[in-house]
Amino acid sequence: VVYVFTDCVFFFLPGLGFCYSIINGPTNATVLAGSEARFNCTVSVGWVILIWLSNGNPVLTVINSQGAVETSDRFTSQNYTSSNGFTSELIIHNTQLSDSGKIECNIQQLSESSFAFLSVQVNGSLFIKNSTLAVKENSTVEIVCEALGWAPAPDIAWMTNDSFIDKSKYVTQQSQGSNDLHNALSILTLTPTDTEVLTCLADIEALPNPQNATVTVIFVNSTI
């Protein structure tokens, strides 16, 4: 027999009664497309069922009496049991842009769900058309760095000989690409006084380190 009182479900068995709740819900995650995303949900002792939802759609169910019910290879789980409760870890394999959104842990009780947000990002390409440039004395040159196929649009910065260049020296424009991806075009304007190595950096949250492209600007002294 099952009785529902406010936020708890009581299962009346001979000598037993259970009220369970979510102890710790999932936390936000940002990952690169194609990698794994993991979310944990811990429920108290006496739990009966736990359902994982992605953007409102059930993707995996864990039943106390029989374990995980997996319907897709992309959504699997690992389970951990302790004296304090039970933890279900949802693993989303080969993440895609469409996976971005709300990830919910639901235990089928009134007001008993917990959610987090998944952000799937795409590391696109980055290049400077010329690997070397020769610039004469007192000449101004424009260096173009292009980032294609990113999500979201990357933050662009420039460095010279390991020092960041002031933002007033370059202009960056962002544009919408295909398949919900974004492009960025950054133009650096400078008047070299010596040979230097310039680095264009593109960064998004999911990258452990910015992607970079470099060009060597060779200063040609016109003095004979």
Could you walk me through the main structural features you see in this protein, from its secondary elements to its overall organization?
- It is a single chain.
- This protein has 224 residues and is an all-beta fold.
- The chain has no helices and 21 strands.
- The strands form five sheets. The chain has a six-stranded mixed β-sheet with strand order 4-12-11-6-7-8, with no helix packed on it. Strands 14-21-20-16-17 form a five-stranded mixed β-sheet, with no helix packed on it.
- β6 and β7 form a beta hairpin.
- The N terminus is likely disordered.
Sequence of strands across the biggest β-sheet? 4-12-11-6-7-8
Reading the helices and strands in chain order gives EEEEEEEEEEEEEEEEEEEEE
**Could you say which overall geometry the principal axes of the C-alpha atoms support?**
rod-shaped
Rounded to the nearest angstrom, the distance between the terminal CA atoms is 99 Å
Helix content: under 10%
Model regions low in confidence, pLDDT < 50 over at least 5 residues:
1-17
Secondary structure tally, helices:
0
**What's the average pLDDT?**
89
What value does the Rg take, in angstroms?
27 Å
Number of strands: 21
Summing up helix and strand content along with how strands pair, one would put the structural category as mainly beta
Beta-strand proportion: over 45%
Largest sheet: 6 strands, mixed
